[in-house]
């Protein structure tokens, strides 16, 4: 798939080939300007339907070719959450916000209510139902934004830098929520700069650089390719950095480096 | 003493108590990090350092001067403030004008020229001097904001979340710029959520929770999982130590690495300590 914005000088995406399995959680990383957000916007048809440009190739989500269906149709399968929850939240209470999406899709009232109870539960928003969204903390707001998308029961959830505006506690809350959704079998695509979190939670990491997929594999595979990661101006998970240094000193010999704390702990116990 | 805060209370309109009895002193040349959850009072505290906020109760002294009796203009020559969002700080049409703006009334033309050149070169902005700051990338905007403050030659540099919202490369660029400012001998106060940054650079860390100081000491002490006090503070502030600190603690506590220091903070330190252990055990085997 190729895409060039109408005002863009060059293609933002250059020949992307990617397939994502049902239930997978894919972390998308890459420096700013590498095409991460553009990729997200192609997944529910915002590109090319609402943001026109030159679009080549195709995107098929849940069997639906995005070129042949409208955004509202695709949105029932693919929900997007952006990094700034304030841009997404429009209603006056948490409850109304969650009901807004399914109500607009014509979902029957009793069904909306049961969905609402369900997403409030899974995103940990209990007790906040009547609160105006602007009185919530950053982490709560972002979980509300996710809840309001989730109440439309999308099969795929796309999160574009969901924790950029959050403090460490808010970031942790959002990733816990993402983990809970993953356990329910929702397919998740998350763009994120906090790679230590992705290393821990994602099944797979896709590294975009200048509009191309440069690496695509398990977190361990991707983050062990240090030359490529560094060449793309990206950083490593902290424990991977440790093992990279150990390797340079000749103190570690394996090809794949640990990416999570638990893996690092086990590896050191094993090899010492 | 560069900055002294005595029993500081601050209440925003609507009776929102943001600071509740803060005591603090910062010496010349220190590198201090202020951490804590959103809404804990970090920015409110820092805005008192250059007089943008005045105490509701208690006192703040900057180089011995009571901020309530000193105007912001005078304080700004001592304490420079780099806001979180550079868009809130930049408004001139070129980078050069932006840096010169605050100095135009204060300096002769040749002095001004020299100051601007100095700031442009320290932050590597020479190539961008004629560009409109708004057309620059976020990290470069941040550098321009830092350069405008630097050109005023303040003795204290306050940076509010300098790396938030940046990608890895941008964060590194800004981090290096902060270190350059530090190396010119200035007192640095950084508000941040980035514990790796704190572990690597801060000599002292102040943890804010709910308008109060929950911890004031060395990062090594704060991130030391082996003491109950540190664990409690981190829990209250909802902060996790860097992975390196957690790993060294786990290895020591559960992994039988009794000789490994428990509170190593950065990867380089950890690797060195582990290498030392290995060379010792080799000697033992021989």
Total helices of chain B: the number is 11
Rg of chain B, rounded, reads 21 Å
- How many strand segments of chain B? 10
Distance between the termini of chain B: 55 Å
Distance between the termini of chain A: 47 Å
What does the largest sheet of chain A look like?
6 strands, mixed
Low-confidence stretches of chain A: none
Sheet with the most strands: spatial strand order of chain A: 7-8-9-3-10-11
How is the biggest beta sheet of chain B arranged? 6 strands, mixed
**Which pair of chains has the greatest number of interface residues, and how are they split between the two chains?**
A-B, 33 and 36 residues
Radius of gyration of chain A (Å) = 20 Å
Characteristic terms for this protein:
heterodimer; A: 272 residues; alpha/beta; six-stranded mixed beta sheet; three-stranded antiparallel beta sheet; 42% helix; globular; B: alpha/beta; 21% strand
Q: Any overview of this molecule?
A:
The complex is a heterodimer of chains A (272) and B (286). Chain A has helices at residues 36-43, 46-50, 71-75, 94-104, 109-122, 138-150, 168-183, 195-201, 219-224, 226-231, 238-248, 261-271, and strands at residues 2-5, 13-14, 25-29, 53-56, 60-61, 64-65, 78-81, 156-160, 187-191, 204-209, 212-217. Chain A contains 12 helices and 11 strands. Chain A has a 6-stranded mixed beta sheet, with helices on both faces. In chain A, strands 2-1-4 form a 3-stranded antiparallel beta sheet, with no helix packed on it. Chain A is of the alpha/beta class. With 286 residues, chain B is an alpha/beta fold. Chain B has a domain at 242-286. In chain B, the strands form 2 sheets. In chain B, strands 6-7-8-3-9-10 form a 6-stranded mixed beta sheet. The longest helix of chain B is centred in the C-terminal third of the chain and has 19 residues, at 267-285. The radius of gyration of chain B is 21 Å and the shape is globular.
């Amino acid at each position: 798939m190729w895409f060039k914005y109408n005002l863009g000088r060059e293609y933002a995406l250059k020949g992307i080939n990617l397939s994502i399995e049902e239930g997978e959680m894919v972390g998308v990383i890459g420096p700013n300007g590498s095409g991460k957000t553009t990729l997200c916007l192609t997944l529910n048809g915002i590109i090319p339907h609402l943001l026109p440009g030159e679009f080549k190739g195709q995107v098929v989500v849940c069997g639906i070719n995005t070129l042949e269906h409208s955004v509202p149709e695709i949105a029932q399968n693919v929900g997007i959450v952006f990094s700034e929850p304030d841009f997404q939240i429009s209603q006056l209470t948490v409850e109304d916000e969650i009901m807004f999406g399914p109500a607009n899709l014509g979902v029957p009232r009793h069904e909306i209510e049961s969905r609402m109870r369900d997403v409030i539960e899974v995103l940990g928003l209990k007790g906040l139902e009547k609160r105006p969204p602007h009185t919530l903390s950053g982490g709560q707001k972002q979980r509300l934004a996710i809840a309001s998308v989730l109440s439309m029961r999308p099969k795929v959830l796309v999160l574009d830098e969901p924790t950029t505006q959050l403090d460490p506690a808010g970031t942790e809350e959002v990733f816990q929520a993402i983990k809970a959704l993953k356990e329910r079998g929702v397919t998740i695509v998350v763009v994120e700069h906090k790679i230590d979190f992705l290393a821990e939670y994602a099944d797979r990491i896709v590294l975009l650089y200048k509009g191309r997929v440069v690496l695509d594999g398990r977190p361990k595979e991707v983050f062990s390719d240090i030359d490529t990661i560094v060449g793309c101006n990206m950083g490593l998970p902290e424990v991977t950095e440790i093992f990279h240094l150990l390797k340079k000193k000749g103190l570690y010999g394996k090809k794949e480096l640990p990416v999570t704390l638990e893996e690092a702990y086990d590896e050191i116990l094993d090899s010492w | 003493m560069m900055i002294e805060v005595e029993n500081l209370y601050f209440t925003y309109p609507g009776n929102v108590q943001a600071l509740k009895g803060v005591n603090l002193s910062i010496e010349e040349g220190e590198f201090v990090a202020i951490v804590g959850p959103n809404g804990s009072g970090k920015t409110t505290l820092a805005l008192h350092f250059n007089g943008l906020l005045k105490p509701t109760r208690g006192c703040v002294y900057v180089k011995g001067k009571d901020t309530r009796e000193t105007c912001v203009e005078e304080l700004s020559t001592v304490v420079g403030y780099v806001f979180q969002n550079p868009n809130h700080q930049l408004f001139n049409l070129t980078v050069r004008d932006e840096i010169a703006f605050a100095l135009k009334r204060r300096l002769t033309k040749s002095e001004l020229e020299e100051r601007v050149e100095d700031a442009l070169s320290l932050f590597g902005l020479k190539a961008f001097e004629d560009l409109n700051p708004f057309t620059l990338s976020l990290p470069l905007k941040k550098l321009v904001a830092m350069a405008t403050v630097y050109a005023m030659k303040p003795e204290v540099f306050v940076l509010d979340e300098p790396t938030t919202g940046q990608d890895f490369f941008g964060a590194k660029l800004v981090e290096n710029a902060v270190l350059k400012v530090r190396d010119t001998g200035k007192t640095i106060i950084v508000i941040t959520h980035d514990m790796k940054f704190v572990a690597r650079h801060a000599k002292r860390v102040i943890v804010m929770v709910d308008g109060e100081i929950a911890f004031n000491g060395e990062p090594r002490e704060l991130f030391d999982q082996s003491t109950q006090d540190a664990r409690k503070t981190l829990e209250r502030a909802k902060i996790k130590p860097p992975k390196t600190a957690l790993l060294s603690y786990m290895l020591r506590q559960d992994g039988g690495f009794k000789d490994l220091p428990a509170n190593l903070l950065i990867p380089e330190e950890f690797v060195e300590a582990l290498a030392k252990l290995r060379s010792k055990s080799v000697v033992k085997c021989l």
